[in-house]
Amino acid sequence: MAEKQFRNSRERTGRTLKDIKDRHELLKTALMRPVALRAGETEHSLVCYAEGREACQNADYLHQ
What we know:
The termini are far apart. The longest helix has 22 residues, at about 15-40. It contains four helices and no strands. With about 60 residues, it is an all-alpha fold. The chain has one domain. It has helices at about 1-15, 15-40, 45-50, 55-64. Mean pLDDT is about 60; it is low at about 60-64. Helix 2 (about 15-40) runs antiparallel to helix 3 and helix 3 runs antiparallel to helix 4 (about 55-64).
């Protein structure tokens, strides 16, 4: 079902799955930034959220 909806959407808009995923990541990051900052999170925590656990551990190591 989802594949059929995607195919129909692609025919209408001409966007590929990669285009849609790239746009989704940009929107998710843009929407999460104000939420994280309002909640008192630091930029470092936001990077951890956006890039995953491994990036967070690497950032912690670099900050020591």
